[in-house]
Amino acid sequence: MSLQSEQFLLDAESKVFNKEHRRKLAFNIQQYDNKVEHGKDQFFDLELARQRAAMHKWKVLENLDKYLVEFEANFQKRGGKVIWASTAQDALDEIIRIMKKVNAKSVVKSKSMTTEEIHVNAALEKEGIESVETDLGEFIVQLRDEHPYHIVTPAMHLSKEDVAKTFNEKFNLPIESTPKEITAFVRKRLREKYQRAEVGITGANFIIADTGSIAVTENEGNALMSVAFPKIHIVIAGIEKLIPSLTDLDLFWPLLATHGTGQNITVYNSILSGPKQPEEKDGPSEMYVVLLDNGRTNLLAQQEQRQALACIRCGACLNGCPIYKGVGGHAYGTTYSGPIGSVITPHLQGMKEFKHLSYASSLCGKCTEVCPVRIDLHKLLLYNRRDSVVGHHHPKSEHLIYSFWKKAMLSRRIMNRGGARTKNFMIQNFFKKAWGDRRELPRIAPKSFNEMWKNRY
């Protein structure tokens, strides 16, 4: 068992029996569910929209090299610069090089799971550069020195009382501060950060090949501010975020909004096509796009699992998953939690270390049911389980036990050998740990059905 697996079991145990944690999570997810049902009303034929989106993403993944080159050419035509990063460290080295070139002391950063994936904040802190999260949820978890709890809603695990307590401890705000008062305080504080920052960092919800553009979706306007004030804009995006054409946004924006937050469309949707042009008054002087691989080509090489790269990071599968609803986001110990995280993390960070996530599922299929781009998530979890066995990522003792079990199950003669007492001894001593402390092991009956059938007359 890997260290990550052991830690997952400990953290899951802690959270699943924490009634207050589950109460907060259940309340917040219920609010989400109610809004999503309303948001779906905007679609005349939701299943057709999902099918179209799935086909678009399949087309991209089958021609990813072509679309990446097309995007690079079109983006560079407008003065943008593309940086190819094979690993997280490559990306961080390039980002820090840009920072040092402009002598940056502070950075404003909009919400981005890709920057969480490569730990941008920690890397900048080591260089003595202040990195400030400007999304309200991200700002809160940064204050608490935590990682985002959810792909879309970073502070989903907190109540308004928890947030008020955090701001009381950090800024001495009254403990009874309302969400409106806290938001006003954060807005004022961030204005100062925007004005001082030399560099703004954002992610990208979509990368548009035919126009060489970046599409950013948000509800607070903080991403726009992170682009508008600083002279340097750095985009960090996974190579799978591509869509072929600008016209595809009329499909993907509503799907993302509905499945992500239950809205018809998010409040701010921006298309960024390079640095400020000679005839333009606003915008950054320089714009960089870091195209991040960091294990994505490993997943792309898996013919059966590559469809997981079609994910548009709406978070719907997390909100529908009974496991996520129990253990929460932090227990997974990864940037991407829930079903999609369980599918992609073993390929991004190592099957041996993270194979256990593919077993943290009831295989109920709810994740597949709610996915707006129709990824067969529960099936991909099974493929991961198969690959972990084929790759011999399990202890030898486990392999031997199940080899014997398989041999016995395929032979009636072997199955009938030994009495119920011997079989119960084997189960109690070799399967107890795998079965779990809170489940009672089954007991073998004194006579098998086969034996009773033979002796029926």
Give a structural overview:
- The chain has 3 domains: 1-21 and 29-37 and 319-394, no CATH class; 43-294, 3-Layer(aba) Sandwich (Rossmann fold); 400-454, no CATH class.
- The protein starts with a helix and ends with a helix.
- The mean pLDDT is 93.
- The longest helix has 21 residues, at 19-39.
- The chain has 24 helices and 10 strands.
- With 457 residues, it is an alpha/beta fold.
- Helix content is 53%, strand content 10%.
- The strands form 2 sheets. Strands 1-10-7-4-2-3 form a 6-stranded parallel beta sheet, sandwiched between helices. A 4-stranded mixed beta sheet has the order 8-5-6-9.
User: Under the CATH scheme, which class of the largest domain?
Assistant: Alpha Beta
Global morphology: globular
Name of the CATH architecture of the largest domain: 3-Layer(aba) Sandwich
Count of strand segments: 10
Q: What is the CATH superfamily classification of the largest domain?
A: NagB/RpiA/CoA transferase-like
The amount of beta strand, in percent, is: 5-15%
Summarize the biggest pleated sheet.
6 strands, parallel
Low-confidence stretches at least 5 residues in length (pLDDT < 50)?
A: none
Rg over CA atoms, rounded to whole Å, is 25 Å
Give the proportion of residues in helices: 40-55%
Average the pLDDT over all residues and give the rounded result. Answer: 93
Amino-to-carboxy terminus distance: 50 Å
Structural class: alpha/beta
How many structural domains does the protein architecture include? 3
Strand order of the largest sheet: 1-10-7-4-2-3
Q: How many helical stretches? A: 24
CATH topology call of the largest domain: Rossmann fold
